[in-house]
Structures are given as C-alpha cells and as structure tokens.
Design brief:
This protein has a single domain, classed as Beta Barrel (OB fold (Dihydrolipoamide Acetyltransferase, E2P)), CATH 2.40.50.1020. Helices cover 14% and strands 37% of the residues. The chain has three helices and eleven strands; from the N terminus they run E-E-E-E-E-H-E-E-E-E-E-H-H-E. A five-stranded antiparallel β-sheet has the order 5-4-3-7-6. It has a four-stranded antiparallel β-sheet with strand order 10-9-8-11, with no helix packed on it. Strands 1-2 form a two-stranded antiparallel sheet. Strand 3 and strand 4 form a beta hairpin. The N terminus and C terminus are likely disordered.
Length: 142
C-alpha cells in the first residue's frame, strides 16, 4: 500500500511563521510581526523592521504573496505596509512607524476597505470623493 499523500505546507504556510531572507550568503530570520513596511526599488526590496532594515534582491510582487494577507497591504507601486502599524492616513499618504509612506490613488480604496472607521458621519462624502479620485483630508486610526 502506498504511503499517504502529504499536504504541501509550502503552498499554505502558517501565516504567523517567520521567513528568512538571504543577504551575503547568510539567512536572516524575519518575523512578520516585526515588519512595518517593505519598500521596492527596481528588483530589490528593503524590509523595514522595528530595529533594522534589510535590502534583498526580490520584488514587491513576489514578497506580497509570501506575507500574511490579513496583515499586509500594498499601498503604492513601491510600498507594502503592515495594517496595524499605520497610525494616520491623510491626503495621498500614511504614517507607518513615524515614516511617511505615499498611497497611490488606485490603492486608496482597497486600503480604506481594510480598516475599521469610526465616525463615518464626518466623512460621509468620502465615497464620492474617492470615485472622483479626490483624496480625503485626514483619517486618524484608533
């Protein structure tokens, strides 16, 4: 009798698991909880963690598929951010770990759909503004 087929865990990794990046023949362990932003530069990315930055030859398109989908979102052609690290969203940008990160017009709506907004009455015209590609003045995340 043949052995039972094993599920390929690489296709569905545990979303809380750390990953390793290869820099100068070393594998550096990165916990997704420590990552607040990933910046793309051509075919390289810079992984910004609480304590360090790591530049590695990889693309944003490839890394976004390796990250926990519930925790990270692409906000610009050159930036991926961790949702729980955003402290402020305003016209065309957000603040992540005290750094200003641009938000593209195309990706503003997907970002807003992923956050909990309280006090929507003050922002009742927001959907019309976004449809007309106008950005909001300011949202503070609680």
């Amino acid at each position: 009798m043949p052995p039972p087929k094993m599920k390929n865990t690489n296709q569905n990794p545990n979303l809380n698991d750390a990953f390793f990046i290869c820099i100068k023949n070393e594998f550096i362990k990165i916990n997704p909880q420590d990552v607040f932003m990933i910046e793309g530069m051509d075919d390289d990315i810079v992984v910004h963690t609480i304590n360090e930055k790591h530049k590695v030859h990889f693309t944003l398109k490839s890394i976004i598929n390796q990250l926990p989908a519930n925790d990270f979102i692409r906000v610009h052609n050159s930036y991926i951010v961790r949702l729980d690290k955003i402290t402020l969203i305003k016209m065309g940008s957000c603040i992540v770990n005290k750094k200003v990160v641009p938000i593209s017009r195309r990706l503003q709506k997907p970002l807003l759909s992923r956050i909990k907004i309280i006090g929507k009455k003050d922002c009742s015209s927001l959907p019309e503004k976004l449809d007309k590609i106008k950005m909001m003045d300011q949202f503070v995340l609680q």
